[in-house]
Design brief:
It is a single chain. The protein has 343 residues and is an all-beta fold. The chain has one domain. The chain is built from one helix and 24 strands. It has a 15-stranded mixed β-sheet that branches. The model has no long low-confidence stretch (mean pLDDT 93).
């Protein structure tokens, strides 16, 4: 039985109504269908043509797994005009990364929220796919990097359906944080078994949206154990799925797999290894993030550009969610992001 006071509703089977309008809100669970090709999109105006809509639609699956020693990330991204794929392992101040771009998305496919996300190129593979038993499998096979992880379905999904940044463009994100994970990695000859000697927890982000041409957002996510030994996860963001009327956000806390809403937050972004702050006006969220190592890129492709920072590090502080659950932690592994794009 779910607590009706967690600030979330049960996810609808489809995120659009019969007229193509998005069913706006924050939900517990995952939808069965996401089809933004038929979404009402007044923000596109006279440019609403199938080919142009395909270029405006962005989708990705991002997976992060952390234990006491490292954070492992794999991502497959379809931006319409280009596909991106990367995997990296952060251990303290050491970052090993493998990445590539696929013009026009060749070899890159991002399925639905329960479907596969795959990027393939000669001698390179990143696959994020559900196993028949339900676990999400992460496979990376690139020179100098072999990753095989399974992420259990023991954290309930959070689904947010939004009018992206209030621009008349539909967007959907499905996230889980605090799921348990296990497997193995081999990175440049350094081998490790994940989840064997210390617990490993995962963050999973699936997003599909008709994003505005100009976007800036901030994001933070983490998973691990709080000071009471409970498995916790958090997702905090600003700039994409916030409801202009203030009725919902994609901010949530998971405790032992159960999500509940968190209030809107503001981000204080630190430069380099300077700590970040993430706080809510009501004091329910009061976090400090300390970066250790960073993945970033400044890129420009003719009429599009992207400035991207994704530091890895640890969170300290406290949270109180819509159910009144309070958690405290010091050294919870996670990631933050600051992204400005013209797409």
């Amino acid at each position: 039985m779910h607590d009706v006071h967690d600030g979330l509703r049960e996810a609808p089977p489809e995120v659009l109504d019969a007229a193509g309008r998005p069913r706006l809100g924050a939900y517990r669970g995952s939808p069965l269908a996401v089809d933004l090709d038929r979404a009402s999109a007044p923000g596109l105006g006279r440019l609403d043509r199938p080919a142009l809509r395909g270029l405006r639609r962005k989708s990705w699956r991002w997976v992060g797994v952390a234990d006491a020693e490292r954070t492992i990330v794999a991502a497959v991204v379809d931006l319409g005009f280009v596909g991106l794929a990367w995997a990296c392992v952060a251990e303290g101040e050491r970052l090993v990364e493998r990445s590539w771009r696929a013009p026009l998305g060749a070899g890159v496919r991002v399925g639905g929220p329960n479907g596969p996300a795959v990027a393939m190129a000669p001698r390179r593979l990143i696959s994020l796919s559900q196993r028949p038993g339900g676990d999400l499998n992460v496979t990376v096979e690139i020179e100098g990097m072999r990753i095989g992880l399974d992420i259990a379905q023991d954290a309930a999904p959070l689904t947010v359906v939004s009018d992206c940044a209030g621009r008349g463009l539909a967007g959907v994100t499905v996230k889980r944080a605090g799921a348990t994970a296990s497997g193995s990695i081999d990175v440049e000859g350094r081998r490790a078994v994940i989840g064997a000697t210390s617990p490993a927890a995962a963050i999973v982000d699936w997003t599909c949206a008709l994003l505005p041409r100009r976007m800036t957002w901030w994001w933070a996510a983490a998973a691990g154990r709080d000071q009471d030994g409970r498995i916790v996860g958090l997702n905090l963001a600003r700039g994409v799925h916030d409801d202009p009327a203030g009725q919902f956000t994609e901010n949530a806390l998971w405790v032992d797999g159960a999500p509940a809403a968190l209030p809107p937050v503001s981000f204080g972004v630190g430069a380099g290894r300077t700590p970040w702050t993430i706080r809510s006006p009501d004091g329910a969220v009061d976090l400090t993030f300390t970066p250790r190592v960073e993945r970033g890129e400044d890129a420009a492709w003719v009429i599009v550009s992207s400035r991207y920072r994704q530091p890895f590090g640890t969170f300290s502080g406290r949270l109180t969610d819509a159910r009144g659950r309070s958690v405290k932690f010091d050294g919870l592994p996670g990631v933050t992001e600051h992204h400005t794009a013209v797409w």
